[in-house]
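Teaching note: in complex prediction, the entire set of molecules is handled at once rather than each chain in isolation. The prompt given to students was simply: 'Predict the structure of this complex.' The entities are:
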Amino acid sequence: MNLSLYQDKGTWLHNLDPRTKLIGVAIVFIICLCFNSPIYMAIIAFSVFAIALSARAQKALWTLRYILLLLIVFSVILWPFFTTGKTLIWSWGFLRLTKESLFYGIAMGMRLSTFVIAGLILLSTTKNEDITNGLIKMGMPYPLAFAFSTALRLVPTFVGAGATIVQAQVSRGLDLESKNILSRFGKFIPLAVPMFITAIRYTNRLSMALESRGFSPESQRTLYYEPVMKIKDWLILSFMLILLIICLYMRIFLNLGVVMPGRL
Amino acid sequence: MRYALEMWKNTRMIVLVAVSAAIYAAALIAFKTAIPLIPGVTEVRVAGIFLMTFGILFGPAGAWGLAIGNLIGDIFGGTLGPASLAGFFGNFLLGYLPYTMWLNFFPFSERDYQWNVKGIKSWSAYISITVISSCSCAVLIGLMVDAIGIVPYEVVSRIIAVNNIIGNLIGVVLLIAVYDVTKNQLGLVWTDIMGIKPDSMSFRGILGSWLVATGAMAGIFAGFIPGLSVNLVSWSSLIFIIAGSLIL
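The expected output is the structure of the full assembly:
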């Protein structure tokens, strides 16, 4: 069962070092946090969207189209009632809608969508193993990276086992179609118990296999695949860093791109 | 916090982290789009039934497993973002508090590190820690996602708290079903794997538990305290939760 969002397209983003993409996405996240004006956020959102198109991540974007749309709608509706501004547009009882809070809601919707698109770019252009390798190279302790990568590999196995268990229980008469939230929780128990036991048995077998091969969490490791930073990686990282410094300068010293002072 | 760091030297505990992360992530992915509550942020978390079970049975491995599992759920679900960091730490607390508070949350705590289905102490510990860990997670995630402009704290913190409490309360059936098999047949309770006897109740443990409990309750009911700003109360609550967790 393939759950990964990775698409083997061979674009310029696919060929970058995983560290460049991880740091790049983190920089995009921070840049998003620099502004809360809809105009500035729109510029960032469209830039990130253009990068996603150049990475040919349309398929992944299409999969999440409803989430992206709902994020914007949800933010625009919700935020105006939890933030306040000076220019009143409408009020009813304790509810107040101001121009600043409405703009802030729109900006937050775009910020959230940008977060999701930036994350998608990383996931659709980088294999899970490469993400782990990148994290190890960036200083993540090996035992943690090992647990992370093992879990990534096991997830499709357990989702497949879960699907088999669901089919087995449904064939015995379990009704999973109920719309009631509480009953859905309860009905998951007959599925969770065999899923839990199947998975847990795996622990002892895997531990024995590792120990018999001399696995030691504290020993020094070498990697079969050694990611190498090339000139283009350094160029892109330098560009992103300069962009981040400019954005921070605009926000902190020039107070640009702000409709709601005092908030990120 | 000691055992949460020491466990990384034990191969079986590391594998347990991976397995519990994979189970949690698989359940999250399977139900991610079933009933979204706040699109891209949270949904009805059927996987919530695993939280206390992992925390009590696997201890620190369960805590790390929940944190990593939540991150993997975001990766496969396509919602990886700054909120994933908040989710990582919040879910860590959901697994960390059950095993650290089990013997220390006086007067609700259990006397021995065990689950006894017929014991009132086990039930009082389970229910009280369910509420505290769920609220602590909600305060931490709520504040972080509010600070970065994802969802207002007042909305998301209560949704997460209720979601986790319901999951944990239903999840007691799972704990009852698997406790004996995991402990006696498979020998995979964390205290047996690490070969330790958890410290019995201490002043330090009680102080830590009550700091976390005070922070969690104040954080969730921040909006109902007249004359105090939600921001001030919730950030103070977070400091209490972090300080208490570090002491435990």
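Point out the following to students. Chain A has a mean pLDDT of 86. The two ends of chain A are 40 Å apart (CA to CA).
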